[in-house]
Amino acid sequence: MSKQSNIYLKFGGAIVVILISLGFLAYTGVQESKSYYVTIKELHGMGDDAYSKRLRVAGNVQPGSIKRSGSQVQFILIENDQSLPVVYTGTEAPPDTFKDESQALAEGKLGRDGVFQAKQLQAKCASKYAPKQGATAAPAKTT
Fold it and tell me: From CA 84, how far away is CA 17, in angstroms rounded?
């Protein structure tokens, strides 16, 4: 083999190794950032799969269940007749709209103890954006 073809083989081999490494890193990054949206009922029916996947679970915050302890917040999500205890230990404080009866979306993993360990938390208060009871629309201005 000539010296030039030997150099081409070395560069080709290095490029193949780099491409395989980049592909592997991209694949594992996507797998780690992927989360599945499930209802509380679906979560309870997942069996052992629930412990190994990153999940997003939505529900309403049970009134009186919010307990704050430093940066940790414990609460219970409810959906129809299902409930799920949640412990949020994220880096950011819970949103201002996070309160009793608000709709919340927790992202994290289910622990073997049945408590959902949330790293991210989103909340919205539907009543904040709904018109007040008995309110009527303002009459249109005519000029």
Answer: 46
Chain centroid offset of residue 15 CA: 37
Token output for 131? 């018109």
Reading the block at residue 94, the tokens are 């819970």
Token output for 52: 């190994």
Instruction: State how far the alpha carbon of 22 is from the alpha carbons of 13, 16, 17, 25, 34, in Å.
Output: 14, 10, 9, 5, 18
CA dist 10 and 104 (Å) reads: 55
Give the integer Cα–Cα distance in Å for 115 and 125.
Answer: 24
Alpha-carbon span 35 to 50, nearest angstrom: 11
pLDDT digits (tens), the chain, 143 positions:
677 888 888 888 888 999 988 888 877 766 555 567 788 888 888 888 778 788 889 888 989 888 988 778 999 999 888 899 999 987 788 877 888 888 888 898 888 898 999 898 888 765 544 555 555 545 555 55
Instruction: Give the Cα separation of 106 and 77 in Å (integer).
Output: 9
Polymer length in residues for the chain: 143
